[in-house]
Amino acid sequence: MSVQYEYPMKTLHFLIIGLVVIFSGISFSNVYAPCIEGLGINCNGYPPPALTQINTDKLSYEISDKPVITVIGVPNTSAQLEIDDPSSNFIFTHDINLSSNGTAIYILDISSYKPGVYSATATSSISKITTSFSIGIISSGGIPVEVFTDKNSYIPGDNVTILGTCHHPNTLIQLSLTDPNGISVKSVQTFSNKTGYFSSSNFTIPTNAINGTWQVHATSGIAHATLNFLVISQNLRQNPSVQSVPVMEENMTLSRHPAHVFSMQDSPLKQFKSGIAANNIKCDNGLSLVIKAEDNSPACVKPDTAQKLTEGGWALTRLTINGLKEIYGVGEKIDFMIDFQGLLHYCDYPHVLVLDSNQNIVWKSQDVNSMCVSAPFSPLPYVNQNFDLNSGYGGPIMINKAGNYTVKVSLYSSSVEKGFIVK
Length: 423
Fold this sequence. Notes:
This protein folds into three domains: 51-135, Immunoglobulins (Immunoglobulin-like); 146-311, Immunoglobulin-like; 319-422, Immunoglobulin-like (Sandwich), CATH 2.60.40.1930. The protein has 423 residues and is mainly beta. The N and C termini lie far apart (78 Å). The chain contains five helices and 28 strands. A five-stranded mixed beta sheet has the order 2-8-7-4-5, with no helix packed on it. A five-stranded mixed beta sheet has the order 10-16-15-12-13, with no helix packed on it.
């Protein structure tokens, strides 16, 4: 007598059917790691941005106005709209959903807002876009306006970064670009920051631009400033005979660019967007690289402009400790780099102290005149300098007692500290 057991086979059969049903009911969607595009960050189209634009219907508003904020992106995208005040403090948020045509419109009530510059940010799971607008901002009246550009000559297609100061915070500035015939190519509004400085990267030399002297105009109330620069086609730029004798108008004002030469570098912004680190941006001869404090983006400016931008807080001043580990063994060599970005004031060098948990000095760097100059200079140069603890400063450090320690570094008016453990 033979017995056939069919139940295990039936069980397996039902199990397979059940798995098919389960997996067929699961909806799979693309999951992306966030990649927020910005200056120096190129996501190469991956993931595709869910949000592409955020705009306000005006740049500057009165308290009685109702700003209209428009967000554009992939249809039916869910996002969050956030408003931050002039001190970057969050004050308002609202959930928004893009319609079937890929837009969402929000009307903002600003009746209780104080004068200043605000930011509006739209965020989805894979996108973040921001714009700024002002409330109750006025022109500077009779306060002088100064304007500069990142280079003193351009070729068609170049981006033009405009920098300037009106010596007054939160002030509305009208910027415009005109060709050699006096025809306005583009005009935009911007506003100064808390230190009175302003900047804009919204200008590009047209690809069909004519050669000659172009102008940037900055206007605030009755205050007005004009800056001249050259636009030279690529084939003229590459002709040495043309480079040696540039054609300029006799009455051309070169007060901001006394050494008027042809640019042989891509603009700082173009280099930055191509993936070059801000500290490695190349500037034309006679121009200094500065780093914008707000977003770490680069600009190439005249040395006197670099000093003004740094003293006004627009350009970055930074002292950092790099390469210091969190934990060392007793007697292990301790080494690190000191990096400084900012104005070189006078004969000085980084001063390094190591303190124990009771604030007792257990190590002190040697005195070195590595940044000494023979005589005072003006304008003060903007530098990006690295210091190796082993290069004349008495390093490396060795500590023979376990405990918690702190490294303190000071240079000029900047100081930084960082902790580590010896065990």
